[in-house]
Amino acid sequence: MLIFDETERRWADEVFQKIEKKMEATVQRSAGMIPYRTENGRFENMAEKNICWWTNGFWEGLLWLLYDRTNKGLYRTAAEEGERMLDGAFAQYPRLHHDVGFLWQLSAGLNYKITGNEQSRLRALYAAVLLMSRFNLAGGYIRAWNDYPDEDTSGWAIIDTMMNLSILYWAAKEMGDARFARVARAHADKTMRHHMRPDGSAKHIVIYDPETGEELGEDGGQGYCRGSSWSRGQAWALYGFLISYKHTRQEEYLDTSKRAANYFISNVWQDWLPRCDFRSPKEPVIYDASAGAIAACGLLELAEELPQEEGTVYQKAALCLLKEMERHFCRWDQETDGILYFGSVNYKEKEGRNRYLVYSDFFFTQAVLAVLGSKLEIW
Ligand code: GLY
Q1: pLDDT mean for each 10 residues of the chain (379 residues)
Q2: Which atom of ligand 1 is nearest to the CA of 158?
Q3: Is 99 a catalytic site residue?
Q4: How many CB atoms within 10 Å of residue 219?
Q5: Residue 255 designated active-site
Q6: Of 96, 110, 137, 162, whose Cβ has the fewest other Cβ atoms within 10 Å?
Q7: pTM above 0.90, yes or no
Q8: Ligand 1 centroid to 137 CA: how many Å?
């Protein structure tokens, strides 16, 4: 169990009150929307733009976090509305991708865990089946994306998928069917061998031969370049392997998560404000707050799994990240949407840099609630 002192708890309580105030105003003006990122202070609505978009579960997830803490009906109603809208994505099966985990674990999955809604349980199970169907038996990995118009991506696996495995572990327990967990472990094992570098950094994209599973190369993906170190990918590795450890108790996953955590900390400790890529040029400064928020969640759960003397290092690092990001990145006015500024979609996409992103807000809120002792099992 994590132990926080009085000052830390008071800090988290004050921040949560600010989150809640801002979110209440945001939810009231966001009816019928599934927010993604802001444009002139207002969230873009992906329910209209692209119902299959990978971030479409984070809004509902954030609302369930708030509902779980406050019991306020407005959050539940909006989360249920978002979940119903997401059925439109099931209807477009050929466009779905490995992020079906994010889409339905945080919407339907959390609904089921919190309210016991049977329809939500089914939605989360459908999503788990969809994810399992992306497993390439010959290659031993879960395929990430569908083909681009001019590129065959059937051999592409990405570090982000480690987070989506959570819905497979859940389905294995829920159905009493070990096949789901076997696929998750096979993918995690392969990712551990091919994506993780000896220093704890992670490749974003590994390209395999889809017929044999042989590694053909890597791609820098959303980071600066091939061989660089996209910080959100580092955070996905840190947290994703920890999740696999929590579900399987396989020590190698814990060690891998620790290596990724040590690497992450050694790249942010100077000011605790994560750059978008840890191996990009120093200028221009491009932050990615989402990486910091994801890493903070992972570090807190990692701390919980370790003996206290060791765990304290990770717990303190998480608090440094949260406090510094709150001080420098959070905007608490009621007029604009979004909590945590300075998220970046992608190093290379100029207009996607230094923005509010719904997943930054989700993970930041999750971490603040963890400091407040939330027992909700999200992943
Ligand atoms: N899973 C996609 C991303 O992290 O941007």
Answers
A1: 94 98 96 94 96 98 98 98 98 96 98 98 98 98 91 96 98 98 98 98 98 97 96 98 98 98 98 98 96 98 97 98 98 95 95 94 98 96
A2: 1
A3: yes
A4: 16
A5: no
A6: 137
A7: yes
A8: 24
Q: In the chain, where are the structural domains located?
A: 6-371
Helix, strand, coil share of the chain (percent; to 5):
55, 10, 35
Measured in Å, residue 167 CA sits from the centre of ligand 1 at 17
Residues in the chain: 379
List, in sequence order, every residue forming a beta bridge with 340; answer none if it has no partner: 330
Distance CA 263, CA 201 (A): 6
Whether 291 and 276 have beta carbons less than 8 Å apart is answered as yes
Q: For domain 6-371, which architecture applies?
A: Alpha/alpha barrel (1.50)
Instruction: Name residue 124's amino acid.
Output: A
CA of 234 to the centre of ligand 1 (A): 11
Token code pair at residue 349: 């996409």
Q: Which atom of ligand 1 is nearest to the CA of 160?
A: 1
Structure tokens belonging to residue 322? 């949260």
The residue contributing the CA closest to ligand 1 atom 2 is 160
